[in-house]
Amino acid sequence: MPLTLTRPDLQRQHNFIANAWHDATDGRLLPVSDPATDTVFAHVPDSAAADARAAVDAAHAAFPAWRALTGRERAQYLKRWHALILAYQDDLGRLISREQGKPLAEGRGEVLYAASYVEWFAEEAARSHGEVIPEPVRGRKMLMVKEPVGVVAAITPWNFPAAMIARKIAPALAAGCTVVAKPAEDTPLTSLALVRLAEEAGLPAGVLNMVTASRERAAEVVDVWLADSRVRKITFTGSTPVGKHLVRESAATLKRVSMELGGNAPFIVFEDADLDAAVAGLMAAKFRNGGQTCVCPNRVFVHDAVHYDFVARLSARVAALKVGPASAPDSQIGPMINARAVDKIAAHVADAVERGACVVTGGERLAALGANYFAPTILVGVDAGMRCTQEETFGPVVPVTRFEHEDEVVAAANDTPFGLAAYFYTRDMARAWRVADRLESGIVGINEGALAAEVAPFGGIKESGYGREGSRHGLDDYTQMKYLCQGGLG
């Protein structure tokens, strides 16, 4: 099944600044590879500081006119963009699968997920309400109004190249901000294709700008935005160490920041759980995108009374997963993003086995398929001292730990610096609310493994970051409050 496009012009290979497509100022290029084969199939600009500065110049110049539009006027641009994303869902899905590796059905699904955020924030653009404040003395009127924060710099990861861009750009544009963006070096083509469709939707020049850069030059690009006082907000999804660096460096100009960072999600199966539902929920939560999501269960806790039964049911499902390239119609798990990712997964499994864990299924590289494939894996006998419980594996590995008591497992679930997502299964509704209240996490799935939706606030606590994407609160992250007080009315 070829991953060719019906509209080849969607595979853009230039920066987009002020509604024009540009090479890097010094002509350097960044290769883009298919993780299924490690074959280079495109090149994009490997941008430098001058390119990043040009993007800010364009966004800053466009901001006054864009913010002056009404919310309904901005919504019309987003609605046209949304319609074009849906019209080219298949091409965008193929691009995602080609550069990121996820099966084609997941690539198409991600496009719909991305489009849902564009549609949601198009509708929310006209609903950014202020407040009328009851005046404490006669003769005054007191109001709070919301304004766009200004130029926003968006930095996105490789695992969801369409959805992460949409979750940041759509609310920024809806709020009246202009945007400079840098997609991940591994997956720039999907983001550039979305920008091409935004251009086609008639977005005014300078409102949305995008530059691409390699890992080696990413800091050069982003440092320009961190130092520039015209950039008023940084929104980032990625690792906690990088997020901490961005927060530190943005302090000099007191930028607003939204950080969606790493996770270490627990998945708890209590003794009274519906085991088939729990297995289905874990399969959906863990193996989406081959386990390469920030909300993937990273530590699975199963009550001692149902441990054997649960693992047996789970292993039957995991062993049946079809691993292969996105071009194979029956693939359910694609390649990992690159060799570094596979090395980390293999190291986590090896460490667990050395420390006493047992492999139930999988546990090995699938070299016959290519360098970036790893077998879906279940480990049992896992404890809190193993790397796979301390770090995000970001791959198709399920480490299972036994527990006996509710207090014990809640304490273990919370014993991490991170707090993005958590899951648990139980039929006891009193326990459901009790445990949900005690879990230190920004997102909790109760008898549910699929959590994300454009209508709900997505984000974490502790070292998983702050700020929310999606819901009406996602729009607020791109606005600032202004208090108006008029006197002399008595």
UniProtKB/TrEMBL annotation:
GO terms for molecular function: succinate-semialdehyde dehydrogenase (NAD+) activity. Keywords: Oxidoreductase. This is Probable succinate-semialdehyde dehydrogenase [NAD(P)+]. Pfam families: Aldedh. PROSITE patterns: ALDEHYDE_DEHYDR_CYS (PS00070), ALDEHYDE_DEHYDR_GLU (PS00687). The keyword Ribosomal protein does not apply. The active site is at E260. Residues 21-483 form the Aldehyde dehydrogenase domain. It is an enzyme of class 1 (oxidoreductase). One of its GO terms (biological process) is gamma-aminobutyric acid catabolic process. NCBIfam families: SSADH. Belongs to the aldehyde dehydrogenase family. PANTHER family: SUCCINATE-SEMIALDEHYDE DEHYDROGENASE, MITOCHONDRIAL. It comes from the Bacteria. Its EC number is 1.2.1.16. It comes from Azoarcus sp. (strain BH72).
